[in-house]
Give the backbone structure.
Amino acid sequence: MRTELPPTTSDVSRRDLTLDLARVTAVCFVVIVHLLQVGVGWGPDGSLITSRPAEMQPWFDAATWFGQIMPLFFVVGGFASAAGWATWRSRGGDARGFVRSRTLRLAQPALPLFVFVAVVLVAAAAIGVDPSLVDAAVVGVGMPLWFLAAYLLCQAVVPLAARWHERAPRGTLVMLLAAVVAVDAVRFLSGMEELGYLNLLFVWPLIQQLGFWYRDGWFDRRSAVSLLALATACYLVVGAVVVWGPYSDNMLANLNPPTLPLVLFGLAQACLLRLAKPALTVLMRTRLAQGVVFAIGSRLMTVYLWHLPVILIISGIALLIPGAAPAPASPQWWATRPLVFLATAIVLGLLSLILIRFEALGDLPPAPGSVILAIAWFCAFLPPFAVTLQGMNTVLAVGGAVLYTASVVLLRRGRRRRAS
């Protein structure tokens, strides 16, 4: 089967490995945050307790200002997307083929997750598992899936966004920023929270656009003092809109629907990443750092999509071991977090040996037509977007498994050639 574009050899010497490190670090932060939010254990009276221990702590809201680093992931993703699109065009590729490959890189790893969750939920209902316990677990599984919807949108607009960036880079930022502010204003003034999800169209693409600027060298041309001043100004503005505006001081609460503070965080984190680049470059010259980043980075979608199911399974197994599931938020519970993190890392590593094949595209025929591509993209977008709005449930899990199967089949199908 002929590939759509000839394969190229990856040259590590030409990559900015600090960006790979930033992307891996962002996902590892997400795993740690979720690890501290899943509390399953036995209470002093022998009753089963489920809670979100980290959110019960007085320091949690302040900690989210440091732990909310998903904007950095989209900045780095914007850099990678701009570079990938430029390479794709230089090799004769078109926008349809680019969007197909990027959508497939997200849809393929998500397919086994939806199938797994659907099978588990249907089986749990069939054998009569306590619905409240199932609901508590399945909400956690669906929590990170907002990322799929947001990133699918960002990848779909890369060719258009890159053209805008080439023609009017400043105007593009201003236009997207105005849209972000307008959506937030309408949402808060009307009291209709659902309107805030329109900012999926503007917040994350705007942060992705900052990655285009990072690739162009704009941050490289700024002095350390300027970068530090700009980052500080961003955090001060966030503080101002939190104190005098409608935004939450919990930066995770500003995530869904996405809001203006995330944009400011993205700009600040881009500045801080560039400030840290010399030190990170030295670190990434070591074989150990390169090996760790490559090992995690080559299966990053598997780690992201499966870490919460793995944490929940480990927590469930711990319930069967005497003394292994202390009451959530107790001193004993906090003391066991490093062990749970280690167990999660080991299980994810073993699981990735099976699932890593879903992250590889292999040989692909020419991209399908625009209509088929659009249908396949919507099949991939709709399930995580619905989960973001409603939370995971059996209907969405089964529907997601069906739609993702259709998406992958359509995306891997070649465009039919007309007979001469």
In short: The CA atoms of residues 162 and 370 lie 19 Å apart.
